[in-house]
Amino acid sequence: MAVDFEVRVDFDRLRRYRLERARAALEASELGALLCFDVNNVRYLTSTQIGEWVRDKVCRYALLARGQEPVLWDFGSAAKHHRLYAPWLAPERSRAGMLGLRGSVAPEAGLMDRAAAEIRALLEEAGVADQPIGLDIAELPMVFALQRAGLEVRDGQQVMLDARQVKSRDEIALLSTSAALVDGAYQLISEILKPGVRENEIVAQVNEFLYAQGSDDVEAINAVSGERCSPHPHNFSDRMIRPGDQAFFDIIQSYNGYRTCYYRTFCVGRATTAQRDAYRRAREWIDAAIEMVKPGVTTDQIARLWPKAEEFGFADEMEAFGLQFGHGLGLALHERPIVSRLNSLEHPVEIKEGMVFALETYCPASDGVSAARIEEEVVVTASGCEVITRFPAEELFVANAY
Known about the structure:
- This protein has helices at 11-27, 39-46, 78-85, 111-126, 140-148, 157-164, 169-192, 199-213, 273-292, 299-303; strands at 33-36, 61-65, 71-75, 94-97, 133-135, 153-155, 217-225, 246-255, 258-259, 262-268, 325-328, 335-339, 356-364, 371-380, 385-387, 397-399.
- Helix 1 packs across helix 6, helix 4 (111-126) packs across helix 5 (140-148) and helix 7 (169-192) packs across helix 8 (199-213).
- By secondary structure, it is an alpha+beta fold.
- It is built from ten helices and 16 strands.
């Protein structure tokens, strides 16, 4: 969605911002370098991506050493493609790499030892081989290979999360556009949510809509209706929608890598008093949380606004985790801050301007089967927050009312 007559997302500025944030976080740490295998971190450092299929392969990795430009190892010919179309990476810093595809090529083949030796040589060149190297995620054989190469391996995941928690204006624009795709998806759902349609049919049509509108990854769609609403199963099924059902949906997808997590609840044809009461309470809980959001507030202050697990039918906060919940959004679905009674009361995090996160609440209905689920995405501003999820949710939406 770029044009020549308006300034919208400046991708050069976006690339610079992300790399500068990562460099600053690295400088503030005890590490000499970061070695990233998480595809979101690789994209953050190098502004490259070759498809959602690589997410679980652990086959792309990037190295950022102090004072150096990032080095990327990518899947086969993708490295040559980057040398043609990703000029922000110097040609010698876009390399082909292969570690074994989750053990399909056994470590004994030596690919990991070869990679570890190459990484050590680059660290020696940068003068940081005697300093710890931080990893975000890795296969154990690769960790062992790095240790055999004489490198001290530490956790680098927290450093990258530090870098990514405050979003730039371009990241916020992409997150808002991503949310706009889901605004449209909910309009579609409101029109097709009728008796006789199945949950999986709705999921199929929403997938088609999102990809047609420019989504680059529909990660998951929860479609939950009728007796499946309580407790929340976090999935979809082939259940057929019936008159009077309560149904809620979560659409998790990305636009230019930036993700949504965006729930809405509907009733089909008509709504009962129990369903409306559950929705009202879920709305009150989320509104109280949104009202609290501003720089300087800590996540425990938000979590305390929400009911304890035992107050809405769960044994403890672990079992209720993810129902009264907040989580950062960016290239990943779960970034900082994480807001929950499970972790935030004893380990609060300060909210900062430029953070983007989702707030979500859940309330079972007194009928024993229905439940309401609401989620809003917010951008933290200097004085409060802006909600960027815009499909109507102030009151329970009755789709195709009788």
